[in-house]
């Protein structure tokens, strides 16, 4: 390697093909061996230019000095002196070194240090030391690594391209570390031993910032920007406030740190872990995970689906919007679920490590985490109560509540008809109070209902589900599941099976079935009058014996279905289906087209403006709710082939007077064809049947009949 040293004269150096080193000095900011007329061309190879000052005065290098420098791959500038040190780069510096690696080392005995490289786009490494003066360090848009040791003076570091900042403060000066909106992840390490002065770390970057706060007293505020930031505070850190920005941020306070922290997660999905002190932690927006650690902490989830774990101590946890998870391990823990609206507040749950816990207002679900004897009590909502491994009392109280054995270690046998303690075999001795529904384990369970309407879901495994009186709902998700409905009378209720299987046949005494599978699946009825609900895939619905209905209640869009088609038909809104032994049709929530066949059919359009065609036979057009019907002829259901004396319009289940609690029937047609005078009246005008269900003069529903000029009470089931 060839070394060139500048002289006091005008120098012109051209490097060779190898690695060259160029050395020069700068004398007290006035005269010296590095001058405006010097020319330096590094040539080929990796070349280094080193500039070192002499003397004691403050220096302010002139940007013009770099105008005759080229082909330098690395420049090292050392400035040392007791006075102020200033380095400002401009266009000439940019032209000379934008493609090089710049190393700046500045030491001041007590004066201020000012570095302004805001216009520089190259890679920079800056090291500064001052015993007393303020430091104002502004880096450029290129990658920059800064190590700054500050005494009593203020320390400010900014830069659009900061990638790493190590700030060591030993005095009482204020500290502000910031960055702009430039390149990759930023690392900020702070070691502050000052006993005074506000220490603030501020980031407005859209990129990740990592803050390692090893302060013993000084760093008090950390504010980060929109990046995915990481903040780690040591045991002795004295930070008062941490506020993160829009990114998915992580804040870790040392588990033994006893100082109280105020932490705000801001936007993004944040992970915040408190220390041993009494911390106040707010997740802000996003799906946050908050852990208070030791101490009596206050956690606030804010928006999003949050996890709030107060840790040891007496903690206060407040959720909000979103589906929140709370962890309680102290009987004095306080949970406040502030949103009672499930559509906004989500479905919330509590993991309880206590011997007994009662769900507070607006909490839907609870899980016993204790392995010992423990009780869990619901509230007035429809609660899910998860049994633990020990002996439990699960009390649902009001609402339609479910006992779940999802976490059982082996198969369970549970009977809702047993009012005392029962051996579940796989999950301890449990007592079930005010429980209406059961969910089994991952094993071969036996679940039995009671005289009420129960939901029985065995979960994984080959399960046996036994119903009885009441409207029971079963889930079949294993081809070896056995469903037994013991009551064959009408008093036994209307029962339904939700099938997740590719094929299922309704057992004895089961009236209805729903295809719950999203793929192609078949559903077959029995000798009863079955309602078979189509799934989203391609289905074969076979009614078997009885008068059976194919329902498209769960279709995602409007369906077109015809009972006259005996082969596979594209329903448009619910796959390609084959209907066998089906006499009745029920539509979706959209604008459906339903067509019967030559037999007696019942067509129910449901919500939406539907088009109904009975076909041959004595057909019934069924209307059950005002929400299924339009109020004007323009959005009314249309019956295309009504035959007087043969077909019927069924309004018998439609409440004719909404002002009463009873389900009132209609009184019939009125002579007036302009307005209504009472609830329960009907009017036929210009091919449209109008009905009134209150005392005003306008119609609450309308049904259009194609080709019909008159109607009377004989055409209506009132």
Main sheet characteristics: 32 strands, parallel
- Taking all Cα atoms into account, the compactness measure Rg is 39 Å
> Segments where pLDDT lies below 50 for 5+ residues?
27-32, 54-59, 179-187, 191-198
Name the beta content range: 35-45%
Envelope shape:
elongated
Q: How many DSSP-defined strands? A: 70
End-to-end Cα distance, whole Å, is 107 Å
Write down the overall mean pLDDT.
Answer: 83
* Helix content percent band: under 10%
The helix-and-strand class reads: mainly beta
**Number of helix segments?**
2
3D structure, described in words:
- About 4% of the residues have low confidence.
- Helices cover 2% and strands 38% of the residues.
- The strands form seven sheets. It has a 32-stranded parallel β-sheet, with no helix packed on it. Strands 8-10-12-14-16-18-20-22-24-26-28-30-32 form a 13-stranded parallel β-sheet, with no helix packed on it.
- Strand 57 and strand 58 form a beta hairpin.
- The chain starts with a strand and ends with a strand.
- With 718 residues, the chain is mostly beta strands.
- The chain is elongated.
- Among the domains are: 128 residues, no CATH class; 81 residues, no CATH class.
- Pfam families: HemolysinCabind.
């Amino acid at each position: 390697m060839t070394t060139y040293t500048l002289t006091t004269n005008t120098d012109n150096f051209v490097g060779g093909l190898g690695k060259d080193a160029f050395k020069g000095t700068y004398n007290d900011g006035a005269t010296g061996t590095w001058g405006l007329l010097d020319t330096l061309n590094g040539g080929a190879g990796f070349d280094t230019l080193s500039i070192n000052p002499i003397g004691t005065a403050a220096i302010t290098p002139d940007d013009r000095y770099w105008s005759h420098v080229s082909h330098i791959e690395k420049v090292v500038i050392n400035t040392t002196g007791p006075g102020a040190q200033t380095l400002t780069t401009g266009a000439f510096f940019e032209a000379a070194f934008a493609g090089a690696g710049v190393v700046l080392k500045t030491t001041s005995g007590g004066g201020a240090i000012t570095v302004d490289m805001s216009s520089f786009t190259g890679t920079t490494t800056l090291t500064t030391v001052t015993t007393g003066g303020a430091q104002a360090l502004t880096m450029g848009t290129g990658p920059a690594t800064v190590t700054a040791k500050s005494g009593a003076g203020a320390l400010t570091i900014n830069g659009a391209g900061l990638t790493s900042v190590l700030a060591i403060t030993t005095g009482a000066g204020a500290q502000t570390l910031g960055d702009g909106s430039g390149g990759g992840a930023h690392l900020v390490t702070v070691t502050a031993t000052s006993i005074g002065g506000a220490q603030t770390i501020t980031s407005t970057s859209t990129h990740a910032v990592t803050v390692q706060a090893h302060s013993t007293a000084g760093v008090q505020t950390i504010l980060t920007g929109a990046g995915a930031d990481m903040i780690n505070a040591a045991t002795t850190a004295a930070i008062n406030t941490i506020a993160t920005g829009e990114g998915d941020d992580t804040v870790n306070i040392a588990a033994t740190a006893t100082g109280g922290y105020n932490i705000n997660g801001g936007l993004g999905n944040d992970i915040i872990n408190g220390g041993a002190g009494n911390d106040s932690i707010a997740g802000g927006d996003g799906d946050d995970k908050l852990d208070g650690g030791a101490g009596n902490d206050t956690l606030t989830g804010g928006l999003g689906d949050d996890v709030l774990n107060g840790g040891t101590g007496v903690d206060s946890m407040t959720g909000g919007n979103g589906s929140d998870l709370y962890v309680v391990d102290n009987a004095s823990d306080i949970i406040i679920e502030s949103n009672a609206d499930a559509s906004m507040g989500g479905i919330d749950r509590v993991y309880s490590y206590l011997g007994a816990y009662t769900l507070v207002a607006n909490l839907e679900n609870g899980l016993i985490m204790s392995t010992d004897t423990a009780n869990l009590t619901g509230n007035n909502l429809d609660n899910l109560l998860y049994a633990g491994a020990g002996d439990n009392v699960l009390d649902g109280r009001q609402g339609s509540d479910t006992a779940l054995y999802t976490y059982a270690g082996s198969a369970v046998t549970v009977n809702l008809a047993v009012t005392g303690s029962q051996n579940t075999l796989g999950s301890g001795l449990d007592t079930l109070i005010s429980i209406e529904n059961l969910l089994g384990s991952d094993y071969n369970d036996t679940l039995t209902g009671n005289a009420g309407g129960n939901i029985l879901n065995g979960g994984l495994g080959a399960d046996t589900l036994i119903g009885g009186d009441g409207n029971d709902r079963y889930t079949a998700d294993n081809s070896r599941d056995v469903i037994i409905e013991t009551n064959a009378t009408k008093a036994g209720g209307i029962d339904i099976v939700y099938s997740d299987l590719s094929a299922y046949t309704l057992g004895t005494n089961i009236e209805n079935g729903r295809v719950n599978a999203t793929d192609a699946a078949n559903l077959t009825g029995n000798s009863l009058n079955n309602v078979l609900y189509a799934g989203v895939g391609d289905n074969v619905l076979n009614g078997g014996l009885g008068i059976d209905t194919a329902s498209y209640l769960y279709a995602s869009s409007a369906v077109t279905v015809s009972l006259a088609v005996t082969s596979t038909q594209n329903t448009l809104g619910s796959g390609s289906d084959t209907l066998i032994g089906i006499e009745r049709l029920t539509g979706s929530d959209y604008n459906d087209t339903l067509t019967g066949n030559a037999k007696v059919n019942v067509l129910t359009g449901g919500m939406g403006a539907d088009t109904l065609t009975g076909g041959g036979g004595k057909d019934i057009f069924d209307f059950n709710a005002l929400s299924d019907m339009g109020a004007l002829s323009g959005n009314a259901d249309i019956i295309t082939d009504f035959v007087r004396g043969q077909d019927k319009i069924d309004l018998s289940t439609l409440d004719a007077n909404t002002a009463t609690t009873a389900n009132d029937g209609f009184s019939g047609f009125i002579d007036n064809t302009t307005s209504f005078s009472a609830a329960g009246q009907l009017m036929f005008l210009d091919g449209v049947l109008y009905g009134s269900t209150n005392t005003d003069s306008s119609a609450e529903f309308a049904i259009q009949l194609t080709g019909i000029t008159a109607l009377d009470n004989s055409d209506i089931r009132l």
